[in-house]
Amino acid sequence: MDPSLLRDRLLFAIPKKGRLHEKCISLLQGADIIFHRHNRLDIALVQNLPIALIFLPAADIAKFVGEGNVDLGITGQDMVAEAEVSDKVVELLELGFGKCKLQVQVPEKGTFSRVEELSGKRIVTSFKWLVEKYFQALDAKVLNPEEIAKGKGTRIHYVTGSVETSCALGLADGIVDLVESGETMKAAGLHAISTILETQAVLIRNKNPSNPDLVTKITSRIRGVIAAQKYVLLNYNIERTQLKNATKITPGRQAPTISALEDPDWAEVQAMVEKSQVAEIMDRIEDIGAKDILVFTISNCRV
Predict the structure, then answer these.
(1) Are strands 122-125 and 155-158 parallel, antiparallel or unpaired?
(2) pTM attached to this predicted model
(3) Number of H helices and number of E strands within the chain?
(4) Is residue 62 a contact partner of residue 127, using CB atoms and an 8 Å limit?
(5) Where does the Histidine biosynthesis HisG C-terminal domain lie (predicted)?
(6) Across the strands, what pairs with 74?
(7) How far apart are CA 95 and CA 14, in angstroms?
């Protein structure tokens, strides 16, 4: 692609594949960021905004944003920490997907039950910097300085994939890897004995974006998409004598909308409620006499 086509465009890095890619594409569509990605090209020009999407490995995005090569990016909080750029990027939004835990795992039928017992042992991981930092702190508590000086501290071995097989192959006493449901680790005969950090996908920017106003606009759009996925609009009628109790149950994000009805003894209430709680909330307002209870899907919003 001609580099001149990127001039005057905000550069927005997106994971090119893996666990975050499809969610990111859905998020962009919800934010009305229209683009067409040609086969084998890792750059796509947005048609309705001065943005160029750059498709990169998720592990590289934090560094590119931190060093100022791109303005915006979506990656995992674990990737930001591993790239050592937490002080070079601004976390704009937690996106609510890609939730995982970076955990220390050991064989279920093994001899280790506490993470302190792994001090001085062999650890295999794909997160070299984070894990080295974690076990250096652990070694400082468990081992004496003389043992550390003699090289008896925990040995960290870096691999790029299939970390969970390392214990079975005799390469490690324990591993550190991202765990989502835990099924993969369970199938490998492993279980967690410590959590180093909890992580999810985040929208980040560098500290000096080329177009701050556009960054604000995109952030607002994405925030709206996330809210639309999380909330529904609840609409119901309630007797005015129960209005105070009803609005305590459905306070909305700022405040509920209350409208008069033709019958002066009744009012209509509209409020955003969390999708995960809507059934319980409907039960509660029905218990105090709410009628004509309706739930509407929110396709997009600004909050």
Answers:
(1) parallel
(2) 0.84
(3) 9, 15
(4) no
(5) 228-300
(6) 203
(7) 13
